[in-house]
Amino acid sequence: MKVSGKLIVFEGADGSGKTTQAKLLLKYLQKRKIPSEYISFPRYNESFWAHMIIRYLKGEFGKLSEINPYFASLMYAGDRMRALPLMKKWLAAGQLVVCNRYVASNLAHMGARFDREDERQKYIRWLKKLEYQEIGLPQEDLVIFLDVPAKISQNLMKKRVKDIHEGNVDYLEKVVDVYRQLCRQKNWVKIDCTWRGKILTEQQIHEKILEVFRSRNILRAK
What we know:
Layout: E1 6-11, H1 18-31, E2 36-40, H2 48-57, H3 69-92, E3 96-100, H4 103-111, H5 117-134, E4 142-147, H6 150-156, H7 169-182, E5 188-192, E6 194-195, E7 198-199, H8 202-216
Parallel strand pairs: 1-3, 1-4, 2-3, 4-5
Antiparallel strand pairs: 6-7
Binding site for ATP: 12-19
Catalytic activity: dTMP + ATP = dTDP + ADP
EC number: 2.7.4.9
């Protein structure tokens, strides 16, 4: 089966299961011989920019409150810029590109740093211009937002060594709020990953995602 090139992005706060669900979808596509590729941002150990991001997340440049969100955004944008030729190649070849985190990760995580809505919107406009226009990154065909309350995701990350984002519950709650605002866009869909205060199983969430694909004819052949 051959489909037109599409960019499918998984977004969500830290600990929401993005990597798991992105790889489950990739496995589903490959099993059905649907041309597909996988990419995850930041591309740790693959670019100069990602190395800088590691240092930032470890707190080498200061505490979260001390780092200008515009400055931090440039590292993430630079990492995606390096991957642009590869992504363009895949999409031009008709591949379905499954992406774990993308532009919206910056929009949500750095947007959450602004208390005033007008300042947040100014930042969002700036970042979209930088990434989509100046760098020329492809627009997402579909963004799948895995909605998990911050307190639940924190519980899921109990055994993880947390970075300067993951260790701040109040900040992560703001991140989820920004994601929910972004989810009003037409190319976004929100997947509720909990029921009565408990996380759904990986397979239950995966089935919800496949239902979105069916309802939107994402895998419609050329």
